[in-house]
Amino acid sequence: MVKQANGKLGVLLPGMGAVATTFIAGVLAIRKGLAEPIGSVTQLGTIRLGKRTEKRNPRIKDFVDLASLNDMVFGGWDIFPENMYEAAMNAEVLDARLLEQIRPELEAIQPMEAVFHKDYVKKLDGKHIKPQTNKMELAEALMEDIRRFKAENNCDRLVMIWCGSTETYIETKPVHQTIEALEEGLRNNDQDIPPSMIYAYASIKMGVPYANGSPNLSCDVPALVELAKQNQGIIAGKDFKTGQTLMKTIVAPGLKARALGITGWFSTNILGNRDGEVLDDPDNFKTKEVSKLSVLEQILEPERHPELYKDLYHKVRINYYPPRGDNKEGWDNIDIQGWLGYNMQIKIDFLCRDSILAAPIVLDLALLMDLAARSNMSGIQEWLSFYFKSPQVGEGLYPQHDIFKQEAKLLNTLRHIQGEDLITHLGLDYYDEE
User: CATH number of the domain that 344 lies in?
Assistant: First the structure.
């Protein structure tokens, strides 16, 4: 039984820079009829129900009971004190003329003091941070922020989506294995507990669904998976699938489906936003690199198809280039092989806008995680892998990166929630198609 989406939905965002302000400003603009929610699957996507001959293809937002955009309330934390109008102007993603039309609403949204430590993001140095130095005390301060925000904004439900920077690379350690070890680590200021994990802990502890939009470990550790199970909590991640990786998850499945070989895939990016500046540090880049490199291996499965992919050389580069700002360029060179091993090449030059691609992902995740919570789901939401570069999965499972398989799982989960038959595309004949 799905609980109705009555009342206000509060969306809390750790990191209120380019992605968060583009998302918030976009929703406010859509409310006023100033723009369309292009890129949002929940708002513009359709879903097929039953046999093709039935011709039932409603909009997703009309099929499942999602929170209304008019009922969304926004808040969060940032290391800089500027309100959302000032932050959006500084980000230089959206046109100033659009921002002026929603200026009062944006100016009313002021970030709370953030949990931040320069050890994890060396390139940034904000001063709008919480005074506590103990990590458990910081988690408790975040929980108090959550309580206060919910009460002050008369929210019925909350979700939290990490939109902050990529942190330095951390591998899973003993402190991450159990809830007890993690809580002891918080009390002892363990170095392997970064700020994003403190936010995740606070969110899950408060029963607030949490999604991780960066490649940080964050909630992707056994302790927080177990905490989510105990608290009937919702978690999902990691790393929003936007530019270059989005293209890989579209192109690679097609090449594999046609049994074409791939010997090399070289990817390079230039971007000049805050994310690019952070990733200019090798320790932070490694976190992103691990997320981006895993995609092709899972899709292509070279161990199963050695004649096609055993010699695949995959390289990823990210370069900080200030003149581009948020307008990222992702360039791919793909060396492929066809019949009898003859060589061919594919070149992709994707001049994209990072935050423009990420903002609708934030919207969809907020609405779908809220739906999951109201549907009595809990734990890792693998059906939301569609939105992530490095999807979080259950222990012993591998992530699915093929975007078409991810879409099928997403839509079938929505059908399941509503009690509709799942679609397998197994048609027995023209008149008896599923």
Answer: 3.30.360.10
**Bridge partner list, 271:** 320
- Measured N-to-C along each axis, helices 179-187 and 222-230 cross at an angle, to the nearest 10 degrees, of 110
Is residue 431 one of the residues assigned to a domain? no
Give, for all 434 residues of the chain, the pLDDT tens digit. 899 999 999 999 999 999 999 999 999 999 999 999 999 999 999 999 999 999 999 999 999 999 999 999 999 999 999 999 999 999 999 999 999 999 999 999 999 999 999 999 988 899 999 999 999 999 999 999 999 999 999 999 999 999 999 999 999 999 999 999 999 999 999 999 999 999 999 999 999 999 999 999 999 999 999 999 999 999 999 999 999 999 999 999 999 999 999 999 999 999 887 777 787 777 777 776 776 778 999 999 999 999 999 999 999 998 999 998 888 899 999 999 999 999 999 999 999 999 999 999 999 999 999 999 999 999 999 999 999 999 999 999 999 999 999 999 999 999 999 999 999 877 655 444 44
The verdict on 363 and 270 lying in the same domain is: no
- Tell me which residue range forms the domain holding 148: 8-240+355-417
Residue located via tokens 């699938």: 241
Tokens of 171: 């591998």
Contacts of 399 by beta carbon, 8 Å cutoff, 6+ apart: 294, 298, 385, 390, 391, 392, 393
Whether residue 130 sits in one domain with residue 42? yes
Is 165 found in the same domain as 97? yes
CA distances from 42 to 67, 106, 324, 381 (A): 11, 24, 30, 16
User: Cα(196)–Cα(302) distance, rounded to whole angstroms?
Assistant: 34
User: How many independent structural domains does the chain possess?
Assistant: 2
Cα 195 versus chain centre, distance: 17
Q: What is the rounded distance in angstroms from the CA atom of residue 255 to the CA atom of residue 193?
A: 40
Point out which residues pair with 261 in neighbouring strands. 337
Q: Are residues 295 and 188 in the same domain?
A: no
Q: For residues 145 and 161, state if they share a domain.
A: yes
125/118 Cα distance (integer angstroms):
7
